[in-house]
Amino acid sequence: MTALADIAARLVEAAKAAGAEAADAIAVSGETLSVSVAARALEEAERSEGVDIGLRALVGRRQACVSASDIRPETISELAERAVAMALAAPEDPYCGLADPSEIATGWDLAALDLDDPADPPAPDRLEEIARAAEDAALSVGGVTQVERASAQRGRTELALAASNGFSGTYSRTSGGVSVSAIAGTGLRRERDWAYESRCHWADLPAAEEIGRRAAERAVAALGARRPPKGAVPVLYDERIASSLIGHLVGAANGSSVARGASWLRGRMGERVLPAGIDLLEDPLKPRGLASRPFDGEGVAARQRPIVEDGVLARWVLDLSSARQLGLATTGNARRGTGSPPSPGTSNLSLTQGSRSREELIREMGTGLIVTSMIGASVNPTTGAYSRGASGFWVENGEIAYPVNEITVAGSLPEMLARIVPANDADPAKSVSVPSLLVEGLTLAA
Q: Which domains does the chain have, with CATH numbers?
């Protein structure tokens, strides 16, 4: 048993000693180091580390959650007593409770997940070199006048979960990332854009120079932006923001939303929600996946399964509570923080790619809009009415004509998702891997 697993187990025992009928606990330790440069000088070097703990106590059909960042024995005892007292005063929740022992995970292969990089992490001076290389590459692109910030980060997190139903599990994850924010132009004619990459293993990261150039080229391409014509046109969601469109679908499939009646997908299980031939797959067991995990926040085994299969809605995203409300079984999708009870959430998602490239879809759209960034959101969770601020590029005769900004894209999510056309440019390294998506007939407004 690791030291962190021992802390989680002691929290559970303390809760039972304080009068809880059932309990589960989470303990998370983390260490991060980030180095940032700007104007070719070191701007910031920040290191953080610590342990956070959370305890959920259950008394009958009542529950309460408490958290702390102090692991002394006296704190654990006080935390347990407070959790039980709060649970006794809480209103009844007929759907709360731990997993049945038959539902909990009993074994997993951490070596196959390969989430913890065995190589030595970069030292602070090496992180600074990486950040400087990214900044220099961005500044070498013509038209770039400033790099707002270039950063390199590394970190490691360990999580332990224990419960009075017999579950006990722990796993760790490393991370590394490089980010660049570049500014092009001068005076009032300036544009900002960015690039960011993150991986579990440092060896999998793209070169810092590539990330810096990408941020710079995006900023330069946006210079001279203006407003496009209004009206109904095809819209291509660029790969780096297409996941937001699929995110609205996943949000509507969340069991909590469905149980509350606040989902436009309610009553549509088994119906077509995406075009035929398209799957939306969740794979929490993806090796080196940014969101991979061997078990969920309630100790239920993680496994690969589709949310949408051949365009048809195949399941909801459920934790134990939402599953009980809907009369179903959990799908192992509980997410857990230290200070709140479990709630449904997804891990690694991937959407079926198409056979055509982004450039081919642009040529086919003729006249329309490419969206590369979005701001704000107005999405009705019950009806799927959709309206978001956007910027990107106007397309004429199948070619990019000029950059655009200060526009609103509006439509209906059920109709939009039913007619998406995916490109073949999804990034498999992302936790939500979605290619560029072409959607016909959206409305543009200033």
A: 3-221 (3.30.2290.10), 225-446 (no CATH)
Give whole-number Cα distances, 432 to 40, 158, 168, 238, in Å. 33, 22, 28, 14
Mean pLDDT by 10 residues, the chain (446 residues): 92 98 98 96 95 97 96 96 97 96 94 96 96 98 96 97 97 98 92 96 97 98 93 96 96 96 96 98 98 98 97 98 97 95 97 97 95 89 94 96 94 96 97 97 86
The 3-state DSSP class for residue 342 equals coil
Separation between Cα atoms, residue 54 and residue 211, nearest integer Å:
37
Q: Report CA dihedral (129, 131, 133, 138) to the nearest 10 degrees.
A: -170
Q: Is the pTM of this model over 0.85?
A: yes
Nearest of 436, 434, 437, 435 to residue 418 by alpha carbon: 437
To which H or E segment does residue 50 belong? Answer: strand 41-59
- The closest alpha carbon to 352, from 414, 416, 428, belongs to 428
The answer to whether residues 252 and 265 touch, using CB atoms and an 8 Å cutoff, is yes
Specify which residues 104 forms β-bridges with.
Answer: 300
**Residue 87 falls in which region: left (phi positive, over 0), alpha (psi -120 to 50) or beta:** alpha
Hey, what's the torsion of the CAs at 443, 420, 239, 286, to 10 degrees? 140
